[in-house]
């Protein structure tokens, strides 16, 4: 369950920087993470659709939230990592 607490905090910090320094990636990131969260929810609900799918709802939700979301977080952070001369605080 830690990914449900830590990931949104990391996203808030990442999106604060992206909005300031890469507005194009900020818009893309918002849409992509909304899709990931909706796919995780859809996978969770799909696992409840039949008795033969018992336990699949947890695996599908974990696939979205524990594997795909952190990878996307890293990919969205790469433009900031590769950019030079960024201040540590996006409000400066």
Descriptive account of the structure:
The protein is an all-alpha fold and 92 residues long. The chain has one domain (8-81). 77% of the residues lie in helices and 0% in strands. The protein has helices spanning 2-21, 23-46, 56-82. It is elongated and about 55 Å long. It starts with a helix and ends in a 10-residue tail after the last helix.
Please give the largest β-sheet.
none
Give the amount of beta strand, in percent: under 5%
| Low-confidence spans | none
Radius of gyration: 16 Å
Q: Termini separation (Å)? A: 34 Å
Q: Helix count, per DSSP?
A: 3
Give, in order, the helices and strands: HHH
Quantity of strands, as a count: 0
Instruction: Summarize the amount of helix as a percent range.
Output: over 70%
Shape: elongated
Number of domains: 1
Overall pLDDT? 85
Query: What structural category arises from helix and sheet content?
Result: mainly alpha
Blueprint of the fold:
Layout: H1 2-21, H2 23-46, H3 56-82
Helix pairs in contact: 1-2, 1-3, 2-3
Based on the model shown, name its key terms.
92 residues, mainly alpha, 3 helices, 77% helix, 0% strand
Task: Provide a short characterization of the protein structure.
The protein has 92 residues and is mainly α.
């Amino acid at each position: 369950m830690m990914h449900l607490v830590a990931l949104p905090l990391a996203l808030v910090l990442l999106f604060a920087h992206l909005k300031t320094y890469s507005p194009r990636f900020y818009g893309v990131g918002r849409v992509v993470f909304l899709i990931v969260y909706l796919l995780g929810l859809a996978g969770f609900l799909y696992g409840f659709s039949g008795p033969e799918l018992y336990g699949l709802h947890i695996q599908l939700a974990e696939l979205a939230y524990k594997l795909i979301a952190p990878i996307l977080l890293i990919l969205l952070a790469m433009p900031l990592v590769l950019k030079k001369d960024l201040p540590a605080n996006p409000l400066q």
